[in-house]
């Protein structure tokens, strides 16, 4: 009898173990849990459940500003002082103000159903108004209290359940609880639809029609269709201008006084674009100095040159520039003036030259560029911007978001000069070839080569070294010289001239009045070397500072390198037997 009871007990224990193992490892979890947090409006972006809570205001879906910035538009801009929101796309600038039903799209008024609203210090954006600009579909599912957002440019796989046991679970295992049962409803004639987002070995990640995101076993569904929802391609007509032949040859023309005698300007062989320094920011309100001249534009066009007028800040007042950049109305004021002047003077483009920007104003500078570019391009203008070389200097280099600027404007000019600047503590080249190439390669890490113009200096610095009272060498830079002035100075002092391979320049040195003078010459030879980098790295072209500093033979060099040669190998072949000898 004891043996029988022991045997029964053993069987029961074994059975219990097997049942426990089955329940733990094999029996599906039949519990049903809520897919969303109760008592709140839930947000689902494609297949992601977002913690941030949207609002329904007067029947319209509104998203918190921070949500839009994180998930849809990192460049959406909030001006807290003016209570204005600015959205920039490739070809649109949208401005909205809190508590106002008037929005502006490229300066044209548009009426909103609801305004930008602030509730409990949170800025809410009427996202349905912006759905076409962002390329999204916004849907409010009242029954489940869920807002879904989908991108139009996306592949959509749609599946249908084919088994009565089909369920959507919280994870990729039958041990996860059920979020929704999809078994056939005898009272319904509609078949549930699921959108598939990800595929795994035995599971799909899906979203139900009521916005629930979870996982379903493949065996329970069949993929019915795959559709590609795309935005219509818009031909904005804003393709960046290119010269008929070769790379772009641009020169800046410094014009801060009276207009020069245009009849005395010689031929500039191969030149495509001239950029006069005409417009300058004068105050934090965005008012501009205007030095433009219609006769100059007429003269340039007759010569076949495009005119890309330069617009600069005040280089020595970073604080004022920062106040301007951080004020939406001020930026808008400057943009409106530039649009008006560009139309009045029949300009072909605007070249933006903002320098000495405080690092904290970096994003505001990017915002300004994103705002001005679509409006200028809508008017048929080419938009370009000058940036400093990547050298780690806050106000000269780090203030430029190179990647964002490269994505926005038509062309970028990298100012690969002033390696040794006017107040440099050490004498040296303005732009030695090895330094220029290294900075160019760094710049190409963030700017597309087809948009990049290499900066070329036409000027030369004369350095003076003398022993100070403390016995140390004191370095000063008395003058920045044109190429012809530098040659005349060398001849006047009968200075010996040698070729310096490291700088790719002729170098001269002489003694006078107890001081040593040093000069690294810019010349046709040095410009030949530097401009060859346009071919070597397949750049858009070259931009030179400044017109009038060059010797006449420079234009022949630039025309050949930018317009006649088709590759760097051709340049190497053409220069294989060059010997660098200075001709007095």
Short description:
The chain is of the alpha+beta class and 584 residues long.
How are the secondary structure elements laid out?
Layout: H1 2-25, E1 42-45, E2 48-50, E3 55-57, E4 60-64, H2 65-71, E5 77-79, E6 84-88, E7 93-97, E8 102-105, E9 108-111, E10 117-119, E11 122-126, H3 131-134, E12 136-141, E13 146-151, E14 154-161, E15 167-169, E16 178-181, E17 194-199, E18 203-208, E19 213-217, E20 221-229, E21 248-253, E22 273-281, E23 288-290, H4 294-302, E24 306-312, H5 318-325, H6 328-344, E25 349-353, H7 362-378, E26 382-387, H8 394-398, H9 402-408, E27 411-414, H10 433-443, E28 452-457, E29 460-467, E30 473-481, H11 483-492, E31 497-500, E32 505-512, E33 515-521, H12 524-536, E34 541-545, H13 553-564, H14 568-574
Parallel strand pairs: 1-13, 21-22, 21-34, 22-24, 24-25, 25-26, 26-27, 27-28, 28-34
Antiparallel strand pairs: 1-2, 3-4, 4-11, 5-6, 6-7, 7-8, 8-9, 10-11, 12-13, 14-17, 14-20, 15-16, 17-18, 18-19, 22-23, 29-30, 29-33, 31-32, 32-33
Helix pairs in contact: 6-7, 12-13
């Amino acid at each position: 009898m004891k043996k029988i009871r022991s045997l029964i007990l053993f069987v029961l224990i074994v059975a219990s173990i097997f049942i426990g193992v089955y329940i733990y490892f094999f029996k599906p979890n039949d519990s049903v849990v809520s897919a969303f947090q109760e008592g709140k409006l839930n947000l689902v972006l494609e297949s992601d459940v977002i913690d941030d809570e949207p609002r329904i205001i007067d029947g319209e879906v509104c998203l918190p500003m921070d949500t839009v910035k994180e998930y849809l538009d990192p460049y959406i801009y909030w001006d807290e002082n003016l209570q204005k929101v600015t959205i920039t796309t490739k070809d649109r600038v949208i401005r909205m103000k809190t508590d106002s039903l008037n929005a502006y799209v490229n300066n044209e008024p548009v009426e909103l159903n609801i305004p930008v609203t602030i509730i409990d210090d949170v800025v809410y954006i009427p996202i349905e108004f912006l759905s076409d600009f962002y390329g999204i579909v916004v849907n409010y599912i009242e029954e489940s209290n869920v807002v879904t957002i989908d991108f139009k440019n996306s592949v959509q796989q749609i599946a249908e359940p084919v088994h009565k046991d089909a369920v959507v679970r919280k994870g990729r295992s039958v041990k996860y609880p059920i979020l929704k049962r999809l078994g056939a409803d005898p009272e319904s004639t509609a078949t549930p639809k699921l959108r598939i987002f990800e595929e795994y070995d035995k599971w799909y990640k899906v979203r139900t029609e009521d916005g629930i995101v979870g996982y379903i076993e493949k065996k329970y569904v069949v993929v019915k269709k795959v559709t590609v929802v795309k935005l219509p391609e818009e031909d904005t007509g804003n393709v960046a201008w290119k010269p008929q032949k070769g790379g772009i040859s641009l020169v800046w023309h410094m014009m801060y006084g009276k207009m020069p005698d245009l009849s005395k300007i010689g031929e500039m062989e191969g030149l495509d674009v001239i950029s006069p320094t005409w417009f300058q920011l004068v105050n934090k309100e965005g008012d501009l100095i205007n030095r433009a001249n219609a006769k100059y534009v007429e003269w340039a066009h007759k010569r076949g040159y495009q005119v890309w007028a330069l617009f600069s800040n005040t280089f020595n007042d970073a604080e004022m520039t920062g106040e301007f950049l951080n004020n939406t109305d001020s930026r808008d004021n400057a943009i409106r003036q530039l649009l008006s002047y560009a139309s009045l003077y029949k300009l072909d483009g605007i070249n933006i030259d903002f320098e000495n920007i405080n690092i904290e104003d970096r994003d505001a500078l990017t915002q300004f560029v994103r705002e001005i570019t679509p409006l200028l391009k809508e008017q048929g203008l080419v938009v370009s911007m000058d940036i400093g070389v990547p050298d780690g200097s806050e106000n000269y280099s780090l203030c430029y978001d190179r990647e964002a600027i490269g994505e926005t404007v038509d062309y970028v000019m990298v100012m690969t000069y002033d390696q040794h600047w006017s107040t440099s503590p050490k004498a040296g080249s303005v732009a030695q070839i090895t330094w220029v190439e290294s900075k160019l390669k760094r710049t190409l890490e963030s700017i597309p080569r087809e948009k990049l113009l290499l900066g070329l200096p036409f000027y030369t610095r004369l350095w003076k070294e003398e022993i100070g009272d403390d016995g140390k060498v004191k370095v000063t830079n008395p003058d920045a010289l044109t190429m012809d002035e530098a040659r005349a100075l060398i001849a006047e002092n009968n200075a010996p001239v040698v070729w310096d391979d490291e700088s790719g320049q002729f170098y001269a040195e002489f003694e006078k009045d107890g001081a040593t003078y040093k000069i690294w010459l810019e010349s046709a030879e040095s410009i030949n070397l530097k401009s060859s980098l346009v071919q070597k790295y397949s750049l858009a072209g070259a931009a030179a500072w400044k017109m009038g500093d060059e010797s006449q033979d420079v234009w022949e060099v630039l025309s050949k390198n930018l317009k006649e040669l088709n590759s760097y190998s051709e340049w190497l072949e053409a220069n294989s037997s060059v010997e660098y000898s200075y001709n007095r």
